[in-house]
Amino acid sequence: MKKAIVFLEVRESRIKKSSLEALSTALTYKGNYFDEVHAAVFCDTPPDFSTLEGNIPDSIQVYKNIEFSLYTPQAFKKELATLKSDAVETVYFFSNTALGKDLAPRVAAALNCGLAMDLTEIKLENGNFTFTRPVFAGKALEDMQLETSDKVVTLRPNVFPVKTAGASGEIKLTTTEVSNPDLSIKTSSLKKAEGMLDVSEASIIVSGGRGLKGPENYHLIESLADALGGAVGASRAVVDAGWRPHREQVGQTGKTVSPSLYVAVGISGAIQHLAGMSTSKYIVAINKDKDAPIFQMADYGITGDALELLPIFTEEVKKIKG
Ligand SMILES: Cc1cc2nc3c(=O)[nH]c(=O)nc-3n(C[C@H](O)[C@H](O)[C@H](O)COP(=O)(O)OP(=O)(O)OC[C@H]3O[C@@H](n4cnc5c(N)ncnc54)[C@H](O)[C@@H]3O)c2cc1C
After folding, report:
1. Is the fold of 2-177 the same as that of 204-321?
2. Angstrom distance (rounded) from CA 269 to CA 34
3. Could you give the CA distance from residue 104 to residue 114 in angstroms, rounded to a whole number?
4. Tens digit of pLDDT for each residue in 227-238?
5. I need a labelling partner for 242 at 20 to 30 A (CA). Which of 28, 124, 168, 303 fits?
6. Which of 210, 213, 255 to mutate to test the pocket of ligand 1 (most atoms within 8 A of CB)?
7. Can you give the pTM of this predicted structure?
8. At CA 77, angle to CA 123 and CA 71, rounded to 5?
9. Which residues contact 119 (CB under 8 A, 6 or more apart)?
10. Contact criterion met (CB below 8 Å) for 287 and 294
11. Residue 118 region, left (φ>0) first, then alpha (ψ -120 to 50), else beta?
């Protein structure tokens, strides 16, 4: 018997898209590897499950407690570990979000099993999983096989597709009111950045670099991001200069992103920047230097002055979008 348990992360009563990606991925192995795929949710009030869009697990275990509106690592870990039953090979799926990156290793340690994080590909061959993740700041890909029968994996957000059509039917929910959860570590408050889309979850990102010349020109990046319905990102040079907040920084010491579209404007393409965005599906670069390294990574490149090109680009996007 083999089963998958997918951790569904909830924010403001909605299941995060990245968790849906993890669920959809686990379900693709139902029948050809897993006998059952289950999910687990921690909340104070249950989220809207209609967003599962045909990705229906065998059951969803809902853990309720007033404290579970925010992350309480020890309590989450304890409940997740108890979902494993003896003699059942269990693979836990998380999304590689900030929370997933913290919780998954705790669960792996509790179960004393193998852990593979930040995966960008999973292959099933001859009944064995091979897990792939970028290493050395994205310079190489590492293939791994975990030898323990139980496994914990985290999937890089925006890499694995979500099936929009699939199984239909009732969702089997089991609700447990958790009394006296372990609150030895807990999140005391979570402040959301005002009205901004977070780069790590956006499917379109427009990032600016030192080529923007100064913070006074950054509105050109914001306008293009707005027109495309995307988030604003930044290189470290721009963050270090105090033009933009660190939460927007993409790269080795910033956030790792995998949007469908990444527009790099006035960014040279240093290895540390590429480490954070090289798995983007389409990369568009605007740079006045035709030899800038970013062009080696880009699917589409425009050589020219960003300050002149950005308003034109934004206008054209607005026209197309009507
Ligand atoms: C340990 C370590 C960790 C790091 N982590 C990160 C990280 O997480 N993220 C990150 O981004 N960097 C990181 N860096 C820094 C990285 O090495 C680069 O210094 C940084 O990415 C450069 O930012 P930039 O491309 O904006 O600036 P620059 O390298 O100065 O490039 C500016 C680019 O703009 C172009 N340009 C200039 N004027 C115009 C114009 N008018 N129109 C169009 N293009 C123009 C130039 O041709 C140039 O290519 C890290 C470095 C180290 C050592």
Report:
1. yes
2. 41
3. 11
4. 999 999 999 999
5. 303
6. 210
7. 0.84
8. 105
9. 96, 131, 132, 133, 153, 154, 155, 156, 159
10. yes
11. left
The verdict on the CB of residue 270 being under 6 Å from ligand 1 is yes
Ligand 1 proximity of 240 Cβ (cutoff 6 Å): no
**Using CA atoms, how far apart are residues 131 and 116, in angstroms rounded to an integer?**
7
DSSP H stretches of helix in 219-305? 219-228, 236-240, 271-277, 294-297
278 close to ligand 1 (CB < 6 Angstrom): no
Assess whether the C-beta atom of 253 lies below 6 angstroms from ligand 1: yes
Of how many residues is the chain composed? 322
> Half-sphere exposure of residue 233, counting CA atoms within 13 Å on the CB side?
32
Quote the DSSP letter at residue 145. Answer: -
Q: Say yes or no: CB of residue 72 within 6 Å of ligand 1.
A: no
Q: Does ligand 1 have an atom closer than 6 angstroms to the CB of 249?
A: yes
For residue 126, which amino acid is it? N
- Region 2-177: CATH code: 3.40.50.620
Atom of ligand 1 nearest to the CA of 267: 25
Tell whether domain 204-321 is in CATH 3.40.50.1220: yes
Distance CA 265, CA 247 (A): 18
**Residue spans per domain, the chain:** 2-177, 204-321
Q: Which residue has 């927007």 as its token pair?
A: 248
Residue 222 has pLDDT above 70, yes or no: yes
The answer to whether 266 touches 221, Cβ cutoff 8 Å, is: no
In the reported structure, the alpha carbon of residue 294 is separated from the centroid of ligand 1 by a whole-number distance in angstroms of: 10
Secondary structure element (H or E) that encloses residue 5, with its range:
strand 2-8
- Residue minimizing CA distance to atom 45 of ligand 1: 211
Between 164 and 96, the more confident residue is: 96
Tokens of 244: 């933009």
Task: Look at 191 and 281; give whichever has higher pLDDT.
Answer: 281
